[in-house]
Design brief:
This protein has about 160 residues and is an all-alpha fold. Helices cover about 60% and strands about 0% of the residues. The longest helix has 22 residues. It is elongated and about 65 Å long.
Length: about 160
């Protein structure tokens, strides 16, 4: 029986920095490759990598891989970005679990990321840049790919 989502998050949270980075890159690459014409071949490469990482793992994740690819292909264009973020997080957690449970799996996942980058150049990880500047006693709240929940007292303009 597959682990519950909370278990996946625990693996991602406690992963070694290199494994966490590799899981993030793998999740990003897999989801980015799903809507590309190269997906059928890359899907097979993903299955091979999962099998190499730990026999039996591919059986647990194959159905989800296929459902996720169909969801992205059928998604309303207005919802693709949000769905993509959700799926990237989910696959990052799956890969973090694979890497935590199978210490030798890092090479298989790394090869998969490299193969996706070579076969689907449009599926390369999108770089993100964020610049925030606070001036004149201002307070700046910023977040990328997440939420801010601010509790506390708001000040009136001009008060200190």
């Amino acid at each position: 029986m597959p682990a519950e989502p909370a278990d996946y998050a625990e693996h991602a949270e406690h992963a070694e920095p290199d494994a966490a980075r590799l899981a993030a890159e793998g999740g990003e690459a897999l989801v980015a490759a799903m809507p590309t014409p190269a997906w059928p071949a890359l899907r097979e490469a993903a299955l091979e990598a999962l099998h190499e990482a730990g026999p039996g793992l591919e059986g647990v994740l194959v159905a989800e891989l296929d459902v996720n690819a169909r969801m992205l292909g059928a998604a309303d264009p207005a919802h693709v970005a949000v769905l993509r973020q959700i799926l990237v997080a989910r696959w990052r957690e799956h890969l973090a679990r694979v890497l935590a449970e199978n210490p030798g799996a890092d090479e298989a996942v790394r090869r998969l990321v490299e193969r996706i980058a070579a076969a689907a150049p449009g599926a390369e990880r999108a770089g993100k840049t964020m610049t925030n500047i606070a001036r004149d006693h201002s307070t700046l709240f910023a977040v990328m790919d997440g939420n801010i929940i601010q509790h506390g007292q708001c000040r009136e303009p001009g008060s200190r």
